[in-house]
Amino acid sequence: MTATCIILDIGGVLEITPKTGWVQRWEERLELPLGTVSERMRDVWRAGSVGRISERDVHWEVAARLGLGAPQVEDFMADLWTEYLGTPNEELIAYVRGLRGSCRLGILSNSFVGARERETELYHFDELVEQIVYSHEIGVGKPDLRAFEAACASLDVRPESCLFIDDVAVNVEAAQAAGMQGHLFEDNARTITYIAAHLDAGPLVPGRVPL
């Protein structure tokens, strides 16, 4: 329970995920007003992020709400996953890979139903870290404190021994509220420096006052 621990986000950290404009292209193709897809699908996206809907039912809802046939639904979801999965942040992934055995390693991700299978196939995050906690599998997402508690429990570590890295400020602030160290990801160089400093400091021990 005193091991030093690094927990990372996926999208925007381990994956580079710029906006691709796919939603707007579909709205143009379907001659829908700007914002229609988000308005019609908002509750489905939310349900998928906390595991309240299956992938099959997501496809059914897309078809019903946007008036798409089966081939169009497949194309629509392919565009969604292309943006969602982005490309691997090779430099950071390589650095984290080099940490294996020197600290506990985990992932905490706000996700969507189907993410584990796709990210495992593409990026092998299951081989990079010891535990991956997905919001769609635990039923709650960041910045809810229960998400951070679940990540710590999965690794059997204390929050104060963990450094959490995310590209969203409110999630970093929530991690700090949960008792973790937090770092807002902006670029690889600063993040790697911050991780190294955390590891050099070592795990906190109850009763020991940090210098």
Automatic annotation (TrEMBL):
Keywords for this protein:
Hydrolase
- One example GO MF annotation: hydrolase activity
Membrane-spanning intervals of the chain: none
Q: Which residues form a coiled coil?
A: none
- Keyword Manganese tagged: no
**Source organism superkingdom:** Bacteria
* InterPro entries per the UniProt record, alphabetical: HAD-like_sf (IPR036412), HAD-SF_hydro_IA (IPR006439), HAD_sf (IPR023214), PGP-like_dom2 (IPR023198)
The record's section on SUPFAM superfamilies has:
HAD-like
NCBIfam families in the cross-refs? HAD-SF-IA-v1, HAD-SF-IA-v3
For this entry, the protein name equals Hydrolase
